[in-house]
Specification:
By secondary structure, this protein is mainly α. It is 72% helix and 3% strand. It has a two-stranded antiparallel ribbon. A hairpin with a 5-residue loop joins strand 1 (2-4) and strand 2. It is elongated and about 70 Å long.
């Protein structure tokens, strides 16, 4: 893995990084919930998209000689999609809880394990050129946490819109919050793709053991 020097930069091949158990639990739980959430969005916008299934539902009802209205067709077409959106909402509650847990960790972990401490050390490091890569990584993580915060706040706002005066009965405001929630998903997906790519490249090149370290905690500095 990499070793942090006194200047706050990294030099490869010196030591393996230790991951705090709480950070590891948060990382994998967050990975699982975000992955499930994105998969539900994918399924609901493709296979279970109501607009894609209305013709099929209408055909089936007609073959049964059933009497129905267009609203009945839309209700049937949305049934499973709506069920999955409920699951999506519950997963969102879990992601929000994990975000709160991660914020709490920033106050109770040692300074070396805190993202804020690492970000500050990299940003204030004197040797900008040698630390640029690490600074970019930490800044990207900070942006990711901010995006997750936006997703959590907007998702919870929609879930509890009837309890919020600014949203209750305000269709335009709810639509705006939903749009923010929806479009924030794309930079999060971009981060996940970049993160996975970076981990794979690091495993193959100068930092082998990142994935196993995030599972078993990593080995102590030698």
């Amino acid at each position: 893995m990499i070793k942090e020097s006194k200047q706050g930069c990294n030099s490869p091949g010196k030591t393996s990084k230790k991951y705090h158990p709480a950070i590891r639990c948060w990382h994998w739980a967050n990975t699982l919930l975000i992955t499930c959430s994105l998969l539900i969005v994918l399924v609901n916008f493709t296979l279970l998209k109501p607009e894609n299934n209305t013709a099929f539902v209408q055909t089936q009802l007609t073959s049964l000689s059933a009497r129905y209205t267009l609203q009945d067709v839309l209700t049937f077409a949305r049934f499973f999609s709506d069920k999955l959106w409920v699951v999506h909402a519950y997963i969102g509650f879990g992601i929000a809880a994990l975000l709160v847990f991660r914020i709490i960790l920033e106050f109770i972990l040692s300074s070396q394990d805190r993202l804020g401490y690492k970000l500050k050390s990299y940003l204030t490091a004197a040797r900008f050129n040698t630390c640029r890569h690490n600074k970019l990584i930490k800044i990207t993580y900070a942006v990711f946490y901010f995006l997750v915060l936006v997703m959590a706040v907007t998702g919870l706002s929609v879930a509890y819109q009837n309890d919020l005066p600014v949203l209750k009965g305000n269709v335009a405001a709810v639509r705006l919050v939903l749009d923010i929630h929806y479009y924030t998903m794309y930079p999060i997906i971009a981060f996940i793709a970049a993160h996975i790519t970076g981990v794979i490249l690091a495993e193959r090149k100068d930092n082998p053991g990142i994935v196993s370290g995030m599972i078993n905690g990593g080995s102590k500095s030698s």
